[in-house]
Amino acid sequence: MELGRHLWRAPVLVIASVLALSACGSAEPGSNDDTDNPAASTTLSPEGDSAGCTEPPVVPSGQTAAPLDPPEGDDVSGTWIGQLETNCGTIEVELYADKAPVTVTSFRHLAQAGYWADSPCHRLTTQGIFVLQCGDPTGTGRGAPGYTFGIENAPEDGKYPAGTLAMARAQDPNSNGGQFLIVYQDTELPVAGGGYSIFGRVIGGMDIVDRVAEQGVDGGGADGPPAAPISILSVEVTQEKASE
Question: Residue 159 forms beta bridges with which residues?
Answer without folding.
Answer: 188
